[in-house]
Amino acid sequence: MRRNRDLLLAFVWSAIALAGVVFALLWALERYDAASPWIYWGLLLLFPLIALYALRTVRRAPMARLSTLCALNNGPVDLLAAFRHLPFAMGLLGLGLLIIAMARPQSEDNWQDVKREGIDIVIALDISGSMLAKDLKPDRLEASKRVAMEFIDGRPNDRIGLVVYEGEAFTQCPITTDHRVLKELFADAYPGLIDGGTAVGSGLATALNRLRESEAKSKVVILLTDGVSNAGTVQPIDAAQIAEQLGIRVYTIGVGTRGKALSPVARYATGQYRYEYVDVEIDEQTLTRIADLTGGKYFRATDEQKLREIYGEIDRLEKTRIKVTEHRSKNEEYHPFALLGTGLLLIGLVLDRTILRAMA
């Protein structure tokens, strides 16, 4: 009877130890990668150890033939005897933890260095009186400004500037990363700021001048107009040849419907414009030539949606370069398993040699 009870206690304590090992193993597998995961197979050695311990327990348990079991059944329970297999269970758990530690669980730290290489862009915007034509809503100028500001919002890493031109050209905003200020100055651009006319060549030359000292690897001008160059001291093709020499790409946009458009033709004394339907004339041949010379592209925007699509295509063509460097480091996480396993082995050994020695 005693032998059976002793064997049962041995298996109970072994099961508790194995449960602890399984819990530790699942914890390690979930949280960490192992440098030598094949070592985990060594945990299977725990089962032969349990079998040997059970066999040893059976062999050393004394047998006594009694005529009755009443004395044993009614006798006091020896609580200390119930814990005599505790040292083996602690050693079993400690050994399991040491095997897990030998597999070298490791955690991994990942981080990235992100280097953004922005593009310097200058938007050269025609603000002549004809940009108030109503074929775009509410007019060409407001639609152009609205779509351009959406384009600016989509390029937070780029330096962007604004040049406006009519009969002459001037810099409304130097290239900057302060896009809030840039958009405010965009909103302030309107016809009548400078002499009348359309100086496409001067507008492009002024934009090139803003980019001439730029150290960016990619420099771009977006030139937008709705007419024919009829003012200024610089010819558009001459400015395009300068852009070619400077390595600056020019994307040209002709804004206006095909056919006739309701356009301002005169101005009253009150400052209001008088509108009539007039033919839309855009020098597409010159704008195409400018783009071809500089490696850019010419677009025609007949409505706001088309203008938005054009800016979207320019955005795709001139992607900001982003260089990402990934770093990884391994951190050894076996120390808690090794320390706890060693501690359990030592405590089990001390208990086996002291308090529980008499139960052996």
Give a description of the structure:
The protein is of the alpha/beta class and 360 residues long. The chain folds into two domains: 2-63 and 79-107 and 333-359; 117-321, 3-Layer(aba) Sandwich (Rossmann fold), CATH 3.40.50. The chain is 44% helix and 23% strand. It is built from twelve helices and eleven strands. It has helices at residues 2-31, 46-60, 70-73, 79-82, 86-102, 140-153, 179-187, 200-211, 236-246, 284-294, 304-317, 335-353; strands spanning 33-34, 105-117, 120-126, 159-165, 169-176, 219-225, 249-255, 260-267, 273-279, 298-301, 321-332. The protein has a six-stranded mixed sheet, with helices on both faces. Strand 8 and strand 9 form a beta hairpin. The radius of gyration is 42 Å and the shape is rod-shaped. It starts with a helix and ends in a 7-residue tail after the last helix. The relative contact order is 0.16. The model is unreliable at 63-77 (pLDDT under 50).
